[in-house]
User: Which sequence fits this backbone?
């Protein structure tokens, strides 16, 4: 199994994803992620010379909308999803720049 | 001898596009609505919502690309830029990293040292973020997502500028092009145009660039100039002291005239870009590009050429009037109504410029209408009011956009055209000022000026000075 995902990487990925993992969870995540990398390595065995990289699996392009206002004020419905609200705004813990 | 340094500057300019709706949803982009009244599941990042690209955003981006000599990508797509911050409800910003819509352009700038090409690396489309409001009372943060999803283009230049003067010329040229295209109003103060300055210094003749910093929060041309000078000094000082410049983002404080480091090393940015699976790729045909090219509105050079051919106004006036979209539009609209290009140009060049300067305003901030200026010109032409009354009324048009016809009627400012009434007043003035009459008859030409002034005063300014003069001459 791949060893690329070590303690340091798990720590860093945890910070990026804003996740606090217990020691057990870290071990499990390490195992899972290394297995994923093994799978990617398997794909790397394929010869893809001359194959264009693909970003989407569906053969669809150019889906647009016209520049027309279709949404009315639905603040109450939107704010119903907020964990906390105040003065028509989403209320979150203090964020300092 | 002291070392000589060169400043190397590149700009990242964000421009808010003038679309009616947001980039990926049908919410209004209108400014100033009550918090969160222009939001929907898409622009508040609700799970399961799906973005759909506003075609007008793409066409504006293409138009700006063509006007700045870029090549338009035939195949383009959107990527997710991941970061956690409450102004961004999805936890990623939809932007373009790998295949931006425009690449490899340039614009030509003019400075006192001549003309120069500033290359454009790329232009990409992206979405704006929400607004954070600090709540002192509860010491928390309130979030308004009305701006979330407002379309932006980011225009990234090559590090081709060397002075604050070049930076200003570049921004002014860019602003003019985009305003003429109607793609944005580009107001720095209001944030519809924002510039981040990437700056490094190096010894003159050095082959390599120095380490650069990125400065944000620059919302006027003056702030940009001061920030460039301040940051140049700071970096040179560090180098002279044998220290190194750290690559970082800094926030310019225009009051303190100093920039502050914004992010520390611990939370180094790692955006983990990847293609947005919700948005399908864009394929642009040659015909589409050609169509946009054909429909480009008249840009400044063409407008100047047309003015020379159509209107008999001085070259200097043409230069000033076409220098802002606002002035050019006002000139054309007013001329269309009253058919007197020379008069319109005069009002713009003399009184309008004077008031702008007096009030420390930009032409973009003009609020009066072409309709009222045209009316004023017509009233003056028909000699309903004289020129000094017209100037007075214009000040009110400039500040409050009043209807001159109505105002003159209400205030009784109409020039008295009843000859009999005027003749009576002139007669009284002549009788009441024997000394001046005597002086004039003895060859003192100037004395008549005093008599004209007295008559105007008696008429409360509502008389035509030419008629008064001829009456006086006749009587004397
Ligand atoms: Zn929306």
Assistant:
């Amino acid at each position: 199994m791949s060893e690329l995902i070590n303690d340091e990487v798990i720590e860093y990925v945890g910070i990026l994803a804003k996740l606090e993992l217990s020691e057990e969870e870290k071990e499990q995540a390490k195992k899972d992620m290394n297995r994923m990398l093994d799978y990617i390595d398997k794909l790397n065995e394929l010869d893809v010379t001359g194959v264009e990289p693909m970003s989407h699996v569906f053969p669809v392009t150019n889906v647009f909308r016209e520049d027309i206002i279709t949404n009315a004020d639905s603040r109450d419905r939107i704010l119903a999803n907020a964990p906390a609200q105040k003065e028509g705004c989403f209320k979150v813990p203090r964020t300092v720049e | 001898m002291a070392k000589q340094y060169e400043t190397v500057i590149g700009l990242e300019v964000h421009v808010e596009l003038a679309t009616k709706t947001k980039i990926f949803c049908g919410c209004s982009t209108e400014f100033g609505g009550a918090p969160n009244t222009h939001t929907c599941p898409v622009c508040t990042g609700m799970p399961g919502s799906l973005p759909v690209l506003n075609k007008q955003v793409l066409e504006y981006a293409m138009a700006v690309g063509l006007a700045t000599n870029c090549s338009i990508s035939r195949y383009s797509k959107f990527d997710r830029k991941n970061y956690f911050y409450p102004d961004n409800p999805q936890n990623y910003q939809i932007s373009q990293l790998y295949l931006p819509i425009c690449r490899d352009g340039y614009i030509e700038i003019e400075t006192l040292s001549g003309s120069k090409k500033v290359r454009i690396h790329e232009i990409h489309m992206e979405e704006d973020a929400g607004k954070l409001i600090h709540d002192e009372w509860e010491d928390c943060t309130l979030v308004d997502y009305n701006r979330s999803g407002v379309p932006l283009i980011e225009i990234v230049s090559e590090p081709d500028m060397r002075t604050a003067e070049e930076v200003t010329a570049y921004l002014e040229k860019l602003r003019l092009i985009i305003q003429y295209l109607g793609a944005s109003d580009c107001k720095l103060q209001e944030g519809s145009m924002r510039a981040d300055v990437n700056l490094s210094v190096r010894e003159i003749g050095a082959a390599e660039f120095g380490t650069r910093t990125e400065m944000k929060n620059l919302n006027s041309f003056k702030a940009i100039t001061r920030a460039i000078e301040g940051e140049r000094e700071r970096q040179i000082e560090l180098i002279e002291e044998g220290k190194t410049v750290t690559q970082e983002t800094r926030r310019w404080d225009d009051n303190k005239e100093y920039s502050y480091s914004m992010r520390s090393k611990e939370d180094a940015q790692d955006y983990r870009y990847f293609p947005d699976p919700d948005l399908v790729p864009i394929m642009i045909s040659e015909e589409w590009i050609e169509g946009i090219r054909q429909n480009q509105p008249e840009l400044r050079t063409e407008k100047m050429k047309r003015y020379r051919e159509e209107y008999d106004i001085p070259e200097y006036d043409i230069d000033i009037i076409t220098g802002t979209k606002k002035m050019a539009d006002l000139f054309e609209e007013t001329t269309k109504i009253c058919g007197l290009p020379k008069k319109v140009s005069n009002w713009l060049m003399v009184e309008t410029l004077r008031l702008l300067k007096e009030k420390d305003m930009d032409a973009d901030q003009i609020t009066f209408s072409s309709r009222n200026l045209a009316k004023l010109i017509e009233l003056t032409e028909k000699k309903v009011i004289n020129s000094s009354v017209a100037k007075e009324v214009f000040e009110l048009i400039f500040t409050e956009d009043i209807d001159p016809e109505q105002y003159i009627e209400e205030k009784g400012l109409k020039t008295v055209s009843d000859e009999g009434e005027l003749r009576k007043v002139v007669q009284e003035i002549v009788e009441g000022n024997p000394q001046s009459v005597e002086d004039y008859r003895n060859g003192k030409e100037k004395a008549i000026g005093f008599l004209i002034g007295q008559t105007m005063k008696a008429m409360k300014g509502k008389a035509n000075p030419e008629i008064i003069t001829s009456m006086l001459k006749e009587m004397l």
